[in-house]
């Protein structure tokens, strides 16, 4: 049995949202046995998303970063990801690493360029 239950609460009451599934005999599909679609708790905007990583953020901001790479700070990236279609709150650290990944795609890898200097100078 697969159980998914909301662990949030609102005004001291636990959120009733829950989904219970069971694996079918073919072992590839699941059957939804119980689904309670009542959701009373709200999300905390200060809660950072732990699943979103810098690679995902870099893919989302890459088109903007190619045009505005000089002005896009990590704080601006955090606001853009929150304002976009996804409404995801990320940490400053994740935004910083996403910015570095985009800059590396735009300008290339500085370490690899530095290692090429002996070949270029010869």
Structure description:
The protein has 2 domains: 2-36, no CATH class; 54-113, no CATH class. Helix 1 (54-68) packs across helix 3. The chain starts with a strand and ends with a helix. The protein is α+β, with helices and mostly antiparallel strands and 122 residues long. The chain has 5 helices and 5 strands; from the N terminus they run E-E-E-E-E-H-H-H-H-H.
Task: Using the CA coordinates, give the radius of gyration.
Answer: 22 Å
Query: Which segments are poorly predicted (pLDDT under 50) over 5 or more consecutive residues?
Result: none
Shape: elongated
Number of helices: 5
Mean pLDDT: 84
Q: Assess the beta-strand content as a share of residues.
A: 15-25%
Helix content class: 40-55%
Question: How can the largest sheet be summarized?
Answer: 3 strands, antiparallel
Strand order of the largest sheet: 1-4-5
> How many domains, in number, for the residues?
2
Return the string of H and E elements. Answer: EEEEEHHHHH
Structural classification? alpha+beta
Number of strands: 5
Q: State the separation between the terminal residues, measured CA to CA.
A: 66 Å
């Amino acid at each position: 049995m697969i159980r998914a239950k909301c662990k949030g609460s609102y005004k001291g009451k636990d959120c009733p949202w829950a989904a219970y599934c069971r694996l079918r005999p073919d072992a590839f599909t699941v059957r939804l046995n119980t689904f309670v679609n009542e959701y009373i708790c709200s999300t905390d905007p200060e809660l950072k998303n732990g699943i979103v990583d810098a690679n995902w953020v870099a893919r989302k901001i890459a088109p903007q970063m190619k045009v505005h790479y000089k002005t896009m700070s990590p704080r601006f990236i955090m606001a853009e990801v929150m304002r976009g279609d996804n409404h995801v709150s990320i940490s400053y650290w994740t935004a910083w690493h996403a910015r570095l990944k985009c800059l590396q795609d735009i300008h290339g890898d500085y370490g690899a360029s530095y290692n090429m200097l002996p070949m270029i100078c010869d």
